[in-house]
Amino acid sequence: MRSSITGTTMPVLQLALDPGExxxxxxxxxxxxxxxxxxxxxxxxxxxxxxxxxxxxxxAGGGLFMTEFTAEGGPGGVAFAARxxxxxxxxxxxxxxxxxxHRHGFxxxxxxxxxxxxxxxxxxxxxxxxxxxxxxxxxGQGTAWVELGxxxxxxxLQAGETLLxxxxxxxxxxESVAFDIVTIGGIRNALFGGxxxxxxxxxxxxxVWLQTLTVPGLAHALxxxxxxxxxx
Length: 232
Prior knowledge:
The chain is mainly beta.
């Protein structure tokens, strides 16, 4: 399987499949494909061996179903377009080298990659529209493509090195990075600081990718220009 990422602000991922090769993706993500690629919608993929595995994947931000793309009778091609301004990032996954990704970050992967819930914590309705803080876990063996919002800032944390990050700006990090949720100290900071009540503490060693664009931040920026309910 060969990949190319084209574009800047709204990139497109194009994948060339050899005959018989299979690609896994979230349902509804397809941009275009060649006629000899067969689509198959199923729950039993992406590391899910049954209903419970599919439910776990759905909790992580995916769906109960995923789509398998298979090239038949010759080479085929499949393309996926970014959903938000940002970047599409290719990551290699193997034993002992998994990643945790923000709730809607997973785009597609080769067979052998498992998608599941890595972490879930309710942070109140003021953050993520009540969805809470959810991380997807990518494990197994293969290659995955992850979508991150806005500009991406990569950091390599050394052993014991710590970074405090607003939950919405956590894009992706290696499984070797320890993390937990901490509260912002001080009543005045919590109530009037405007940064929310919680931060994510990331502790090395391992790689961290931070994203500058968050969906709630984008929605807040656009809200003054959207019609209100009951108004023309």
